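Retry 2 of 3 after timeout on previous attempt. Resubmitting structure tokens to design endpoint.
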């Protein structure tokens, strides 16, 4: 069977290439090219992912906070340390988004209270933030939503 192909003149090929260059870029096209070249995509705030104790963290700062919190947990100052805990955010009964906290734990050093057999200590929701990300309107809005929806003040570390 004979191979069929397009028989285009050089002029037609050049016109086609001009048309293709004028097309708007497709979503994800740059990522596909970058992937094919083997270059990693940079993160939104240029932080580098770090692996510590087999756990991947979004930044070196977040990994350092995890190390400190693990030491405090081993010393007994905090308990029930968890990462990446999600909180659905509702306004007037409608879900407006989800906040994923970097850290969640009970602070045993805080004022102790035993109400209906609940855990002793104060619940702390914490997020690793740089000086730049602390000031972002999206973060400020999320922090206010956490306070309004759950009565939780998110600690910026």
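Retry 2 succeeded. Sequence:
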């Amino acid at each position: 069977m004979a191979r069929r192909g397009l028989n285009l003149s050089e002029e037609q090929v050049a016109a086609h290439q001009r048309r293709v260059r004028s097309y708007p870029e497709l979503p994800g096209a740059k990522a596909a090219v970058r992937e094919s070249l083997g270059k990693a995509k940079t993160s939104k705030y240029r932080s580098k992912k770090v692996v510590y104790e087999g756990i991947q963290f979004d930044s070196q700062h977040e990994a350092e906070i995890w190390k400190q919190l693990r030491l405090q947990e081993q010393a007994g100052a905090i308990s029930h340390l968890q990462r990446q805990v999600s909180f659905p955010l509702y306004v007037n009964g409608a879900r407006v988004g989800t906040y994923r906290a970097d850290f969640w734990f009970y602070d045993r050093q805080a004022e102790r209270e035993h109400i209906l057999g609940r855990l002793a200590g104060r619940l702390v929701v914490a997020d690793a933030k740089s000086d730049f990300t602390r000031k972002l309107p999206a973060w400020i809005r999320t922090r206010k939503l956490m306070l309004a929806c759950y009565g939780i003040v998110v600690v910026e570390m």
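Attempt log closed. Helices lie at 10-22, 29-37, 60-75, 131-134, 137-150.
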